[in-house]
């Protein structure tokens, strides 16, 4: 049994050809596309500073987790190691959990929580800890489970879109959903249409995602 640190010890392998540009980097473009996380993470912290001062400093936790995704995703795609896969997926899970805790409208809270955000945050943390341990059981399904959570977020955003009459807010939602749809289509295409993209030497979809 290979070490969890070993190169290509993960069962997940994306469409990009391995070690094409370097003997040390398995997926070159998938690895270095994560540099954007280290650009936008600090930028979000700067732009969201007024929000943090007036509403919640938890936004800084969200931004730090965002940068951790970039770090762990870079490590995973560089090595295709089992540990890298888990770190990548778990960091995304915790980012989603922090987003739920900070921004989910109270009308979507479970009834037994009422409108208490502190209790809801505790519930999210417990669920995320349990999910973190479960992610070790069937690692090949983790990515699909995370995309399932994303679909739930899309549903909530759509419900909020129907409620609002704020044109600027609607525009933000529309652009966000368009970008998400393009990203999701890239992920699906890379996963299930890999042979086609390899035939035309275009295997950058996961790095775009």
UniProtKB/TrEMBL annotation:
Function: Hydrolyzes the sphingolipid ceramide into sphingosine and free fatty acid.
EC number: 3.5.1.-
Reaction equations catalysed: an N-acylsphing-4-enine + H2O = sphing-4-enine + a fatty acid; an N-acylsphinganine + H2O = sphinganine + a fatty acid; N-(9Z-octadecenoyl)-sphing-4-enine + H2O = sphing-4-enine + (9Z)-octadecenoate
Pathway named in the protein's UniProt entry: Lipid metabolism; sphingolipid metabolism; Sphingolipid metabolism
Pfam families membership: Ceramidase (PF05875)
Family affiliation: Belongs to the alkaline ceramidase family.
Membrane-traversing stretches: 28-47, 59-78, 90-108, 120-137, 143-158, 170-188
Record protein name field: Alkaline ceramidase
Membrane topology: Multi-pass membrane protein
Keywords tagged on the record: Hydrolase, Lipid metabolism, Membrane, Sphingolipid metabolism, Transmembrane, Transmembrane helix
Cell compartments where the protein resides: Membrane
Organism: Ceratotherium simum simum (Southern white rhinoceros)
Highest rank taxon of the organism: Eukaryota
Class of this enzyme: hydrolase
């Amino acid at each position: 049994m290979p070490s969890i640190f070993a190169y290509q010890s993960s069962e997940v392998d994306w469409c990009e050809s391995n070690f094409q540009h370097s003997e040390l980097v398995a997926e070159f473009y998938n690895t270095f596309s994560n540099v954007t996380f280290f650009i936008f993470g600090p930028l979000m912290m700067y732009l969201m500073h007024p929000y943090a001062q007036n509403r919640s400093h938890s936004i800084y936790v969200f931004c730090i987790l965002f940068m951790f995704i970039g770090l762990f995703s870079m490590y995973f795609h560089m090595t295709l190691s089992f540990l890298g896969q888990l770190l990548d997926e778990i960091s995304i899970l915790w980012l989603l959990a922090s987003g739920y805790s900070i921004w989910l409208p109270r009308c979507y809270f479970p009834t037994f929580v009422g409108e208490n955000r502190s209790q809801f945050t505790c519930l999210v943390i417990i669920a995320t800890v349990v999910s973190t341990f479960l992610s070790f059981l069937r690692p090949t399904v983790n990515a699909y489970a995370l995309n399932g959570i994303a679909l739930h977020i899309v549903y909530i955003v759509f419900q909020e879109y129907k409620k609002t009459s704020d044109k600027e807010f609607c525009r933000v939602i529309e652009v966000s959903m368009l970008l998400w749809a393009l990203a999701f289509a890239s992920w699906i295409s890379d996963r299930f249409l890999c042979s086609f993209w390899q035939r035309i030497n275009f295997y950058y979809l996961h790095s775009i995602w």
